[in-house]
Amino acid sequence: MAAPMLRWVGRGRRWTFARVDGGSCHRREAPTGSTSNRIRGRSSVAQQPLYTTQKPRKGEHKWAAVVGLEIHAQISSNSKLFSGSQVRFSAPPNSLVSFFDASLPGTLPVLNRRCVEAAVMTGLALNCHINKKSLFDRKHYFYADLPAGYQITQQRLPIAVNGSLTYGVCAGKKQSQVIPKTVRIKQIQLEQDSGKSLHDDLRSQTLIDLNRAGVGLLEVVLEPDLSCGEEAATAVRELQLILQALGTSQANMAEGQLRVDANISVHHPGEPLGVRTEVKNLNSIRFLAKAIDYEIQRQINELENGGEILNETRSFHYQLGCTMSMRDKEGKQDYRFMPEPNLPPLVLYDATSLPTGADPQQVINIDQIRETLPELPSVTRERLVQQYGMLLEHSFTLLNEVGLLEFFQNVIKETRAEPKKVTSWVLNTFLGYLKQQNLAVSESPVTPSALAELLDLLDSRTISSVAAKQVFEELWKREGKTPGQIVSEKQLELMEDQGALEQLCHSMMEAHPQVVMDLKKRNPRAINKLIGLVRKATQNRADPAMIKEILEKKLSS
Q: Judging by DSSP bridges, how do beta strands 177-192 and 160-171 pair with one another?
C-alpha cells in the first residue's frame, strides 16, 4: 500500500491527502549535497576531504571576505522536542506525526528533557555561558511544511551564549603545519525542525512529509570571524566531531542531521562591511567550502565590474559548482516574534542554586552534566601525540576520517609493532587504498586483526617490507586468507640461510664487475643497484640490510 502524504496545493493554499507509489513522484530537493552520499547514507573518506585548495582571486589584495555561519544540528533523541513522536530517518512519509506535530487544535507542547541536556552539554563543550533561565518564542512565517504557521525557538534569551570553537587549519608547502584558529560562538538555541517539501515536477505539485516536523534542533550561531571556505569547512568539521564525541547529535550531513547556512560579504579593508548574501542548506563539508569560495569570488567580480550585491538568499548547485538566487531579502520579513504562551521559562540549576531536597528527575543540574563530559577531540589529539609520539597533523587525520581512530587503536592493541610503524601503515598504505577505492573505513576488506598480524610478521623480520606490501595487496582481495597463510603459500619468508645469501652476493659481484668498480669509486647508486639485483634473484625474500652488510664486508676484504 502506498504511503499517505500531505499534498500542498499552492494557489488555493489548502492541504489535501494523496497516496504516492514508489514510481509516481519525482523528488527534487535543493542540490546542496553529494548525490552519492545521499544514496549510500554515509560519508566516505574520499568524498569529504577536510581542506580545499585556495586559488588566487582576482583583486584579492584589495578585498576582505567576512563569513558567518548558522549551523543546525539534529539532536540525538528518541522523541521530538515537544511531542512523543519517534525520531527515525527514512521512515515512511507521515508515519511519525503526532497531533501536536500536525498542529491540531487543543494540543500543547511538552519539553523533552533529553534535548535540554544535550543543549547544556554542547554549550559546556563549546565554552559557553549557560543561562540558568531561558525563554521560548514563537517565530511566525507561513510555509507549507510548518503546519502551525510558526516555529518554537529561542530568540530573546537562548540556553547558551558567548562561547568559542578552536579548530586547526593546515598550512605550509606540504600542508604539514597546523595553525590553530578560534571562532566566537554568539549563541546556542533550542528550536523545532520543519517538515520536508518534496517537489513533483511531473504533476506540478509539492508533497509534504511531516516526519521531521518538531524534531529537536540545536542552532549554533557563529560570529562572522571566518574569511574563506577552508576556514568554514574546518570549523564545521571540528564542531561535527565535538557533537559526535558528546553524543548530542550524530551530525550525519548526508542524512540532513547537520545543515549549514553561510552569510557572506566582501569589503575593502578599513571600510564598512559589504552587503551580505545567505547561502542556505549546505549539507556537505566539501560543498560548504566550494559554495563560500565561489560566492566570495562572485561578489568581488560583481563589484569590480560596477555592479551591486543584493541582500538575497541563494542556494548552491553542486553539479554546476555555483550559487543561484532563490529570493531577495530587501523587504525584511517580519517574523512577529512573541513569547511562547504554552511554555514557562526554562530554569536550570547548578550546585549552588539547587533547591534542597529537589527531585533529580525534575531538575537539570549544570554541574552534574559538566562532570559527565567525555574526552573532546582536541584532548584526544594531544593524547595521541603524547602517547604514541605521532605528529599533530597525523592526529588530525585520524580523527577527521570516520572510524579511522578506532581502527588505529584496535591495531595498536593487537600488534607488537612500534606505534610509529602502525601510524605509517594506517595513514599511508591503509588510507591510501581506501581513497583509491572510494571506501569508508567500515567497508574495508582488511580488518585491524589482519593488519596487526601483518605488522607482527614484519616486526619479527619474517618478511621484508616489500613482501609486506604484497601481502597487504592480497588481503585487499577479500579472499579470506590470513597474512600467515599468504606468506606461506607465496613463499615470501626472508631467506634464513646466510651462507646461500653470501654465495648469491658473490655471484652478483662477479657477474657485474662494472657496478663493483663504480662502488669502489664511492658511487652511492652502485650499492643500491647490487642490492636490487640480489633481491630480484631471491624474489624479494632477502633482507636489504643483510645484503648491504654482506656486500660491504666483501668489498672491504
A: antiparallel
pLDDT at 37: 40
Long-range CB pairs of 376-380 (<8 Å, 24+ gap) are: 376/125, 376/242, 376/245, 377/238, 377/241, 377/242, 377/245, 378/166, 380/245, 380/405
Residues of the chain with pLDDT under 50: 1-57, 59-60
The whole-angstrom separation of Cα 228 and Cα 53 is 11
Q: What is the pLDDT of residue 539?
A: 65
Instruction: Quickly list H helices, 247-284.
Output: none
pLDDT per position as a tens digit, 202-244? 888 889 999 999 999 999 999 999 999 999 999 999 999 999 9
Q: What are the backbone dihedrals phi and psi of residue 493, each rounded to the nearest 5 degrees, phi first? A: -65, 150
Sorted by where each starts, the structural domains of the chain and their CATH numbers stand as 64-339 (no CATH), 377-490 (no CATH), 498-556 (1.10.10.410)
CA–CA distance, 295 with 7 (Å, rounded to integer): 35
Question: What integer pLDDT is reported at residue 227 of this predicted model?
Answer: 94
Own/partner long-range contacts of 516-519 (Cβ < 8 Å, ≥24 apart): 516/555, 519/551, 519/555
Q: How far apart are CA 27 and CA 212, in angstroms?
A: 16
Residue 270 half-sphere exposure toward CB, CA atoms < 13 A = 2
What integer pLDDT is reported at residue 1 of this predicted model?
41
Which residue bears the cell 653470501? Answer: 502
Residue 544, phi then psi, degrees to nearest 5: -55, -40
Element (H, E) at 31: none
Return the pLDDT at 518. Answer: 75
Nearest alpha carbon to residue 278 among 264, 299, 295: 264
Residue bearing cell 636490487? 532
The per-residue pLDDT for range 308-343, each reduced to its tens digit, is: 999 999 999 989 999 999 877 655 678 899 999 999
Alpha-carbon distance of 116 to 245, in angstroms, equals 17
Beta strands in 123-257 (DSSP E): 129-130, 133-134, 137-140, 150-153, 160-171, 177-192, 196-200, 205-209, 216-222
Distance CA 29, CA 209 (A): 13
